TrEMBL record:
Protein species of origin: Macaca nemestrina
Record's GO cellular component terms: cytoplasm; nucleus
Name of the protein this chain belongs to: Up-regulator of cell proliferation
A molecular function (GO) term: GTP binding
Keywords for the protein's UniProt record, in alphabetical order: Cell cycle, Cytoplasm, GTP-binding, Nucleotide-binding, Nucleus, Phosphoprotein
UniProt KW Cytoplasm keyword: yes
Pfam families: URGCP, URGCP_GTPase
Primary residence: cytoplasm
Length: 888
């Protein structure tokens, strides 16, 4: 608790107790907590991200934890679904009628304990050392710390990223209650990117998008000294929350289980941010502001407090009592340039003593009486919060220290804290990334000069292969034309094969060829962030200003033109590898190159290993809107070899117009990593593999689920003719034809893209109809109700002219039918879903809506139930999928 006397703490070397037994009790506390939560087994071989994403029996149940060992998995499952209740550690226990809850001393920061000198000190001390039992609720902060300690770097990163999306305060310094070797979580923060608008409201150049690790902002720390009857966390939540809608960013005593004993999380430093929306009526501050919160007393966690004083523009110290010991601690900060503010409750403490020591501290800390605030039970809370905000605003207006998380990590290193990013594998991967990215001055020029097999050579080859494929379905194709296409294709492939991989591509191949799985994963993450940093400035614009593809006057569209500026990404390096493999394979097939002279035959194996580690791989090339068939089938063959007996697949695809939230839906449902948002998304279709737990695979009927995100392939144009529409329809047919289950993501009740309707008509002829789920996503207002049952039929009934045009293109003699009848969709059988709005509140400070999270979980449960009941058509193994890819 924040109210425990530092005299009786077992902290960072400031403990004055002389009994040698006390450190032993403290050292065992972490191990006892890990044992209680069932995490002991993950101390050597850490829990991985892939472990946490496996589909199991629990994936289909909205179960409540019954014993402490359920809590880590319940937290991970809810956090993956962005559920606002993820931090709730309530357990459903079978309690006997005469059972009574066990009462114990609270250690939470918000609980107030006053020591009576007449009490038996030994009894009080041992009550603090009491460890949780299976029927004692676990404090949520203890659960978080135990889980982070038991997780590898990539699961830690995922946990922190999901917590950021939920607007939870994030762990910045992870305490080690056994060895006092605390860890600064820099790597875990790397993946968080935030957007904001500076004032004036949404003016030109006011939009910003940046990593929270790299962007600099003033920092304000809130700490407790000795005991405090005021809650730091509640105060911080009030300061961060606009209007009267308080969001519980920091866990506090008035929340469920907020007063349960904290056993291992004292010394935790949390971080959160305020980001402006550009709206003066909502913005508390005109610029981003960082807030830091130290759990526990500063006397017991002096190292963390020292760090906060070095990185903060101002430190708010909450206390009821200033004793001689606390005075000495603060006196040692006399050289600090940080501003200090005291928040006191004098009626709870020793008022005269406080005043005496404050008068001594005023010249030492260079403060005046305006830096001392008094808050008692009669103080108006709203007025007090406004006063805190005014102090922060005054500091912002004056010259003040601005720091990034990277700057904080540098200060932590100087103080002797461990930084998670400093491990050898991570640094080697970073160095390799920098050798690649330092050569990228201009993304377009780099693609042209270093990724030479893409662009015109691949676009021309793809066009020839499309023409050749169309000839195969012709009734009597002219042999001369076929020979000419073969000749042109071979010329293009020989031209590609004459090149060697550039130095950047060779460096990339070396990075993903590392025998160390961790180094390989570090490298891929570094590449994603490194390439994002060199992205063209035109990509850092508000989403509404991005380029869109317009049909030309004749109705046709230039297929070489981009829907939006495509950022340089990892997929471009993998595309280049794919083209080297395609060109070489084509020449071997034609007898122009002996198989023994192949140089790139191992490339699909490298790519399949990336798919197994959770990286989304490109299925349909976003630059040419075509599938590199040899590369994809080669990759799937290698996947089949690596999976051996566990190669039964269900293919789940999601189609829809960009901006309808389909990638976010898939990521929330399964914990995937598909790119979201037009400003950062590649245009191709991507696939990612999910493993089904061995104990559940027999029941579910498959060993893995291959999830395909259509990305930006479906433009949603209403035109019924032209190359663009035909191409979109063909790609939609391909993706739906490969699938056992297809999710159609819609933004409006009649927003069914023409290309998808066209694909329905084509697939009906083949007899292959996957299980369809139509998802209507409310992209704006969380309060808008879902379609009423009678409206659901209308949702699947596209405009007559659009349906008629699609039927005419397929030359159907019976005209057209409503899509509802075509897809065998019965509105009463839950084929149609209404998903509430993603955000609760106004971004960028909005949290994910609980209703959104719960609706996504119900959709996931239904999809898995359909798969288990065989409603998703016949499941396939990988070899059958390869044949289907070739046929389609």
């Amino acid at each position: 608790m924040e109210g425990d006397d530092c005299e009786f703490r077992y902290g960072d070397g400031t403990n004055e107790a002389q009994d040698n037994d006390f450190p032993t009790v403290e050292r065992s506390r972490l191990q006892e907590m890990l044992s209680l939560l069932g995490l002991e087994m993950y101390q050597v071989q850490k829990l991985s991200l892939q472990d946490s994403l496996q589909i199991s029996f629990d994936s289909m149940k909205n179960w409540a934890p019954q014993v402490p060992k359920d809590l880590p998995w319940n937290f991970l499952r809810k956090l993956q679904a962005l559920n606002a209740d993820a931090r709730n550690t309530t357990m459903v226990l079978d309690v006997l009628p005469d059972a009574r809850p066990v009462e114990k001393e609270s250690q939470m920061e918000e609980e107030i304990i006053y020591w009576d000198p007449a009490d038996d000190l030994a009894a009080d001390i041992y009550s603090f050392s009491e460890l949780p039992t299976p029927d004692t609720p676990v404090n949520p902060l203890d659960l978080l710390c135990a889980l982070l300690i038991s997780s590898d770097s990539f699961l830690q990163q995922e946990i922190v990223l999901k917590m950021a999306l939920c607007q939870f305060a994030l762990p910045l310094v992870l305490p080690d209650s056994e060895n006092h070797y605390h860890t600064f979580l820099l790597w875990a923060m790397r993946g968080i990117v935030r957007t904001w608008w500076s004032q004036p409201p949404r003016g030109v150049g006011s939009f910003r998008e940046d990593s929270v690790v790299l962007s600099r902002a003033p920092a304000f720390a809130f700490v407790r000294m000795d005991v405090s009857s005021n809650s730091k966390s509640q105060l911080l939540n009030a300061v961060l929350s606009p209007g009267h809608r308080q969001w519980d960013c920091f866990w506090h005593r008035d929340l469920n289980l907020g007063t349960n004993a904290r056993e291992i999380s004292d010394g935790l430093v949390e971080i959160s941010w305020f980001f402006p929306s550009g709206r003066e009526d909502l913005d508390i501050f005109p610029e981003p502001v960082t807030f830091l919160n130290l759990r526990g007393d500063i006397g017991s966690h002096w190292l963390q407090f020292k760090l906060l004083t070095e990185i903060s523009s101002a430190v708010f110290i909450l206390t009821d009592n200033i004793s001689k010991k606390e005075y000495k601690l603060l006196y040692s900060m006399k050289e600090s340039t940080t501003k200090y503010y005291f928040i006191l409750s004098p009626y709870r403490g020793k008022r005269n003593t406080n005043l005496r020591f404050l008068n001594k501290l005023i010249p030492v800390l260079k403060i005046d009486h305006s830096h001392v605030l008094v808050k008692v039970s009669s103080t108006d809370s709203d007025s007090f919060v406004k006063r805190i905000r005014a102090i922060v605003g005054n500091v912002l207006r004056a010259p003040c220290r601005r720091v990034s998380v990277e700057d904080m990590a540098h200060a932590a290193r100087k103080l002797g804290l461990k930084v998670d990013e400093d491990c050898e594998e991570c640094q080697k991967a970073k160095d390799r990334m920098e050798r690649i990215t330092r050569k990228i001055k201009d993304s377009d020029a780099y693609r042209r000069d270093e990724l030479r097999l893409q662009g015109d050579p691949w676009r021309k080859a793809a066009q020839v292969e499309k023409e050749f494929c169309q000839l195969q379905w012709a009734v009597d194709p002219p042999e001369k034309h076929r020979a000419e296409l073969r000749r042109r294709l071979l010329e293009l492939r020989m031209q590609q094969n004459s090149h060697d991989p550039s130095s950047g591509v060779q460096e990339f191949i070396s990075g993903i060829s590392s025998p160390s799985l961790s180094e390989k994963q570090y490298f891929l993450r570094w590449m994603e962030w490194g390439l994002a940093r060199v992205a063209q400035p035109r990509l850092r614009q508000p989403p509404e200003t991005l380029l869109t593809l317009r049909p030309k006057h004749g109705g046709a569209t230039d297929l070489g033109e981009l829907l939006w500026p495509e950022p340089l990404g990892v997929e471009h390096f993998l595309r280049e590898m794919g083209q080297f493999y395609e060109a070489e394979s084509c020449l071997v097939e034609a007898g122009r190159l002996p198989a023994g002279q192949r140089r790139f035959a191992h490339f699909p194996g490298l790519a399949s290993e990336l798919l197994l580690t959770g990286l989304p791989l490109e299925l349909i090339d976003g630059s040419t809107l075509s599938m590199p068939i040899r590369w994809v089938t080669g990759l799937l063959k290698e996947l089949h070899v690596r999976l051996e007996r566990r190669s039964r697949l269900v293919v789940l695809s999601a189609l829809g117009v960009p901006g309808t939230g389909k990638s976010t839906l898939l990521n929330t449902m399964f914990g995937l990593r598909f790119a979201t948002g037009k400003s950062c998304s590649p245009r191709g279709a991507f696939m990612q593999l999910i493993t089904v737990a061995e104990g559940f695979s027999q029941d579910l009927g498959c060993d893995h689920i291959l999830v395909i995100d259509s990305g930006g392939l479906i433009g949603g144009a209403l035109t019924s003719a032209g190359d663009r529409f035909e191409l979109e329809a063909s790609l939609a047919t391909l993706l739906m034809g490969l699938s056992n289950v297809t999710v159609i993501s819609l933004a409006e009740t009649k927003d069914i893209p023409a290309a998808i309707l066209h694909a329905f008509l084509r697939l009906e002829k083949t007899g292959h109809m996957p299980n369809y789920q139509f998802v209507y996503q409310n992209l704006h207002d969380v309060s808008v109700p879902g379609p009423r049952p009678r409206d659901k039929r209308q949702l699947l009934d596209p405009p007559g002219d659009l349906s008629r045009a699609a039927a005419q293109m397929e030359k159907q003699s019976d005209g057209f039918r409503a899509l509802a009848g075509l897809a065998f969709c019965d509105p009463e059988k839950q084929h149609i879903w209404h998903i509430p709005g993603l955000w609760h509140g106004a971004p960028p400070m909005a949290a994910v809506s609980l209703a959104y999270s719960e609706a996504i979980f119900e959709l996931k449960r239904c999809l898995l139930e359909n798969i288990r009941n065989g409603l998703s058509n016949q499941n396939k193994n990988i070899q059958q999928l390869i044949e289907l890819v070739r046929r389609l």
